[in-house]
């Protein structure tokens, strides 16, 4: 159908100014005017349960975070070459959440920048330049990071220094040796790089394979992969931009579910609950050669307002027990979805950890992806007042990452909506 005239005008203005870079969700885009907690509201006053947004970890417009940002902005904001108090407190508090060996942090403004630095750290520390990634990974938008983001290549060939392999998918490939097999594939990819005279620098992955399709289990399966990476002299870069800050419930960081310590960790998205702040955490001996060589400096990264936002997020996560909530509500959510799967042959799999949940749509009786069903459900759920995104190369996997303050009543609303939508799809 045709767009409402007010919406059409906004879309037209956006396209006129942003050109081809205007990216919007939904055929009929949403005009959002405010948000609070787990809900967003459009210009007509319609309310949407936000299960898509992985930025507002502690809830939209959380008053603690808003106040911290406003107060700091009214007191001091500056480039980052001065001594000011809250950045030290923030750095110390943040590093306390990490294994002790990861004792240095570099603040940036985006996850892309953080991964760009991570690649440079790995190259300088190892002397290599080859990277191994997963087939549909996304790590960001700089020139270098795009090259390790096959999701941005739309089927075009990756540059020679990058090898991509399938993410470990226990739904299509059930095995007791998931970790061993994945490690073997990494070893093979490293071998291929070296055969072409490209020394190996590192393996970059997020511990829940967010863009590949949300593969969380079994916890620990990544250990084998890291062993192979280290034996080959490479570094493991853990991209925590999506699984970090308690998203997976049991732990602050996704890699902790696998019982391992990356050499470099990058983080972003939820770090300032919407205020742009991101960062890289690593060991001092990995950071040193990079700083010696580049004199690295970041004008905005970790400025006083960013630090205030970051500190407030850590406070709220702790005081509101949001990791525990993610664990509790997440398992309630997945159990209910498991039950729904029994009644709906179009749901092939339900998986995830904490409040990072994947719902995979497959053609009934097979594991063949059903992207048309996922798209239909995403659009129909919007009409019910629920926002969801998709993951996976085929876009057939619903990707749920609601604020961690989600409650059972919100889950029930989601489930009722999904039930109605699936009922209508099948009739
Ligand atoms: N890594 C992962 C896993 C991401 O999902 C993203 C953003 N989608 C990035 C890095 C890049 O972060 P940013 O958009 O802040 O540059």
UniProtKB/TrEMBL annotation:
SUPFAM superfamilies recorded: PLP-dependent transferases
Coiled coil ranges: none
Molecular function GO terms recorded: transaminase activity
Cofactor dependence: pyridoxal 5'-phosphate
Listed Gene3D superfamilies: Aspartate Aminotransferase, domain 1 (3.90.1150.10), Type I PLP-dependent aspartate aminotransferase-like (Major domain) (3.40.640.10)
Highest rank taxon of the organism: Bacteria
InterPro entries documented for this protein: Aminotrans_3, Aminotrans_3_PPA_site, PyrdxlP-dep_Trfase, PyrdxlP-dep_Trfase_major, PyrdxlP-dep_Trfase_small
Keywords of this entry: Aminotransferase, Pyridoxal phosphate, Transferase
Family: Belongs to the class-III pyridoxal-phosphate-dependent aminotransferase family.
Protein name: Aspartate aminotransferase family protein
Organism: Methyloligella solikamskensis
